[in-house]
Amino acid sequence: MSGTDQREHSGAPVPGTAPSLPLLRCDGLVRRFGERTAVDGVSFHISAGETYGLLGPNGAGKTTTISMIAGILRPDGGRVELDGRRVDAHDPEAKRSLGLVPQEIALFDDLSAEENLRFFGSLQGLRGADLRARVAATLELVGLSDRAKDRISEFSGGMQRRANIAVGLLHRPRLLVLDEPTAGVDPQSRNQILESIEQLRAEGMAVLYTTHYMEEAERLCDRVGIIDRGRIVAEGTRRELVAQIGEHDRLVVRADGPLDAFAATVGTLAGVREVHVGTGSIDVVVDDAASTLAAVVDAATSDHVVVTGIEVREPNLEAVFLHLTGTALRDRGD
Amino acid sequence: MTGVRFRTALAAIRSFVRVFARQIVGDRVTLFFLVVLPVVVITVIGLTFGSAGSSFDIGYVRTDDDGLPGRLIERLDDADGVGVVAFEDAADLRAAVRRQTVALGLEFADDVDARLAAGEPAITVVAEASAQSAQGALDVVRAAVAAELGPDDAARFAASLTGTSFETAEQVASTVAGALPPLDVAVTDVGEQRDESLSEFALTAPQNLVLFVFINAMAGGAALVRMRRRGVLRRVMAGPVSATDIVLGVTAAWFLVSLMQSALIMAVGAIAFDVSWGDPVGAFLLAVVFAAVGAGAGLLVGAVGGDEDRVSSISPPVGIVLGALGGCMVPLEIFPDAMRTVSRFVPQSWAMTGWERLVFDGEGVSAIVGPLAVLAGFAAVFVGLAVVALHRDLRSG
Ligand SMILES: Nc1ncnc2c1ncn2[C@@H]1O[C@H](COP(=O)(O)OP(=O)(O)OP(=O)(O)O)[C@@H](O)[C@H]1O
Ligand SMILES: [Mg+2]
Q1: Do B18 and A108 touch (CB under 8 A)?
Q2: ipTM of the assembly?
Q3: CA-to-CA distance for A281 and A263, rounded, in angstroms?
């Protein structure tokens, strides 16, 4: 799980694009609304096939950043490049490799899901049998095949969200940009949405995902940028971010037997930073809980220690956020 | 590159046209206002107008003469089933007679009593000879003149008739002459080229065409407000289309909807109610340019409106007021001068002037170049303002 973990994209490579170039590059993006600077020098990049999360509270500037990436808002400063091509008003073609799922349900609610998809598909230049096939496949992917002919206004909130996502996916973009796609949906729909995104990710689609739900960022994203008051205050994999604030994963191993010897053995294992012996348990500070766990259990066996329980404590992005901004992520509820 | 841009713009136009058509067909209320209501109104008004033979209005050019003219008007006003309408000048009166707003018109010479005494024609009767109500009105006028003057003086009453053909005018005139011998009849042919009489529907169909096309186009702005509010337009911008493509697409869609409604009203009028829309080229151009005006108004309302419900509820009353100002309710020629000046700021009045020249006067394209140009100007201003507003809206986030 890192930024170098790139996957092959199924689509044909764009001619003239060096493979080393990131798919999306944002450079010093600035956007003001009157006196307020909503986005204040945001830079990041996303490689082909990578999933990048933009995590931040309400009003942090996530939607404004995305609108500049999608060519909807003109930046007051900085630039956006998609596939090595600058996104600006005079070259709308640059946006062909982008699919946008806006925060609001941006659909014709008096038309059916299928009709909406046909409209947006035809704007992407899809026609005829190709368009029909894409519409059907996309509805299938988001689980709306049986409701294709129903009006959006007759859909539940979760179904509307899924239809909203379908429009962004229709033309199989190389980069899918999702702006809080799970806001206000029930857990079941949310899970369905996250699963479809995981599937797309597995197929090699790059994803830019904004959210203020830490669990989603942790579950989906290769890398996360934490954005607050228009600035990216930290960026990296979850582990890198956690390490950056001096926090580490912990394993609390409850066990019977010679704990001191056990602790000494564990202390020699790769990826183990510290070991503390307590009463009936040892406390292990590690780089990465998941990869060290098996070795710790093996050590217990060879040291004749009976493990009665293991607790994995991974400091989460919430802690990182709290540390970096001094505030908790606001509005985390539905 | 340019080829791709062109194709994308075309795709945008096609997509918007299709989606609007789909929305209209799917919405019964819109469909009703767009298709059913205009046809019903034309039918009802046409039938009412056509069966109004039992009561009618007589028009006259306003006069201060309280001699014979004053007494005659008073007497006519008192007669059962007869109303009198004053006009500012002879041209207005003649226009009203031609479109049969009044059954008959009276023009008084400057010094009626002296002329009568000298045996000269003193009163000109203006009539559309083919109109059914003209004959009855002529009888009423004749009776009133006779009652005022006594049979001897009434004999010097001169009628001047305008009509579609010289023969019918002469025929009506000689009927009058037979009833009031010896009558000095001066027949005036004002040079109409129209050779068929107007059906009763023909009089109101242009008014309704202009009225409804505008109201519906304006109310259609609500759909644009909804698209803006729901973020659909902004989302479209995230695709490989420019703001200009979007504006083009939306404008084209609106224009085609307006044009289709015009075509429908004109076709129903022509086929079901025998309405003649005059010179085909002129009628086509006028319908196209006015559809563009309507589309521009709808776009503008849609581009600046903040609330779709407000747009759809405010459009009919505003459209009706503008329509009334533009001569869609009562004809322009009975407007007082000040009102008529105001009406020139309303596109509907130019459209009505155009239709009057085509339908009532039987003239061709050359006679409506002025109105066409003014309407094209209105369309350009509306569309231009809407484009600026839409661009700004799309770019503001
Ligand atoms: N069109 C606009 N006009 C004025 N201010 C705006 C506009 N759009 C955004 N802002 C302001 O810019 C800041 C960033 O807003 P933005 O929508 O990008 O935040 P966000 O991170 O997407 O928040 P949320 O999680 O609530 O969606 C906010 O203070 C917001 O009020
Ligand atoms: Mg947002």
Answers
A1: no
A2: 0.76
A3: 10
